[in-house]
Amino acid sequence: MEFLFKPFIFIPLVTIAIAIAVYNFSGFFSKVFSKKSENSKNTILEYYRLMGVSVDPKKITWLLYGMSFGLGAVFFFILWPNIIPGLIFGVSVGIAGWNLPLLLVKANYERRCGKFVEQMVDGLTIMANGIKTGSNPVQSMQRVIEIMGNPISQEFQNIVSETQLGSSFEEALTKLGQRIPRPDVQMFVTSINILKETGGNLAETFETIVYVIRERQKIEKKIEAITSKGVMQGIIVMLVPFIIFVVFLFLDPAFIRPMYTTTMGYILLFVMLVLQVIGGIWIKKIVTIKV
After folding, report:
1. Nearest to 270 by CA among 90, 97, 100, 99
2. pLDDT attached to residue 170
């Protein structure tokens, strides 16, 4: 029976067995993966739509499969012939790779929303000055589009374009609040919509919103300065195991070699990485304070 474990025989047999198993369970797995893929793809496309970016859905699907099954297979064959560690790390990398595109797109969207709120200070100041000189809100927005950059320029251009195509100014502002769901943006949208119906001093309202945003940003910066120590401590704690591993690798290689040459060592490394990820998530939740 030993000849069965030779690479040129064992690898084809494993491949055939996997192919048969996949074929037999193809109906179940295809439904699960199809549903998961569709949900992730739709969420990514929704974030891109909110950012005003057009993306081919097929490319998103191929990206998800490449980052999951592709990277998982790469790690599996890197650790060959250690099948169990290869499966553990391959599946882990596959799951992480599947979720990575969504996390990156969401982070980019959140960063864009944050930049828009930061630009609102200058943008609303320009609008307030324009209204004082007799311009209406749409004309004041046009001035912001000419002076400032994205994303506020892009979002205000969308509002102006929608009003030119027949939508009301209130509807266009409501869509802005849906694309950028931030309290400051909601306050801006609600203020204009209310004042358009009841009347009032728009320039003074914009100046008040600018003051509120500036005060909120001051508080956020103070919180960031206070929590920076906790963030640094969390980073150091997460790096300590890797630093110890490298130190032992140079000082006493024989002592640390079982960690990356045996099955038990691979399992311990996997458990350590999982605990590191859980600890990092908890530390982030502790030091994250929303204003």
Report:
1. 90
2. 81
